[in-house]
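Summary for the lay section of the report: proteins are chains of building blocks that fold into shapes. Here we show the chain for Methyltransferase domain-containing protein and then a coded description of the shape we predicted for it.
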Amino acid sequence: MSNDSIHQLAQQYGPFASFTHTDIGPIAYDYHGDSPVEEMQRLLERYAQAGSQILDIGCGAGQTLCSLAGRVRHIWGIDRNQELLTLARQSLVDNAISNATLLSGDVVTDDIIEQIADDSIDMAFSQRGPNMNRQLVRKLRADGIFIQELVSSANSYPLQEIFGRKSYSPYIYGEQQVLLSQYAELALLPISSKEYMYESYYRDRDHLEMLLQSHNGTALISDWRWGDRPYLPEHDRKALDLYVQYNTTSKGIRLLGQRRIFVLRKRSEPFYPIDCAIHNSRTSNQ
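The coded shape description reads as follows.
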């Protein structure tokens, strides 16, 4: 893949696919407490142990995958975006990484993950990507770790509101306790849960507009309930001007961010009382 192609992908996806040094990236951040970026990196380095096998769910262009490959026995990456996977494969070649396998497909509907043996993964992680599901949990060994970084509901809230794209209907399944309850049904129980609020800053209106015209910007002002609604200058620029008017600071144009980071462990024993009763009954009959 040529340097021009890589640059175009970086401009298109930006922070959405973990591209850092791009024209659409912010000029500064304010973290009101710890940084979710630093915390995610700390957790990944802690659990990516020598001799382990790990899985990157939604690996994108493979930046994180490549950075962890030297720490582990084998790393798997899966993504459905062919453009980003092509770049990830090139990164493996460029960095002479031989202990990585990339899979192309959807973790919900495709059988591609069956290439990974059950009970073989020591740690799986998802950075603003798919949730864990029953098929993926089977790949985790007992006491295996799952780390997830989520974009929370307050992310870019004022921007969505001014653009008229903020959904006010309740979506209970996006709430933390509901998600953790769903994970408990998959035998995943939390050992850590943290929330992060921060602000990023953009140089001027043109800089912020460049972000909004990217894939990352579409995600900022869209809602899954009505699908992607990309930024259209002829339709949305007046709303952008109003947002700039209200959110210009001495540091630049402010954009609100919110993240959650979960660490969960796969339980090896039954969780619900009825499961224990069934388990004990089967054991006594053997």
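Put simply, here is one thing we learned. The mean pLDDT is 86.
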